[in-house]
Amino acid sequence: MAIDYQVNSNPIAAVPIAQWNHIRSSDITDGSYNISDWYEHIWIIAKMPMVDYEFLDSQVGKALVEIITTQQDDPNTEATYTSAVLQSIEGNHIGLNMINVRVIFKIDIGSLQ
Question: If residue 13 lies in a helix (H) or strand (E), which one and from where to where?
Answer without folding.
Answer: none
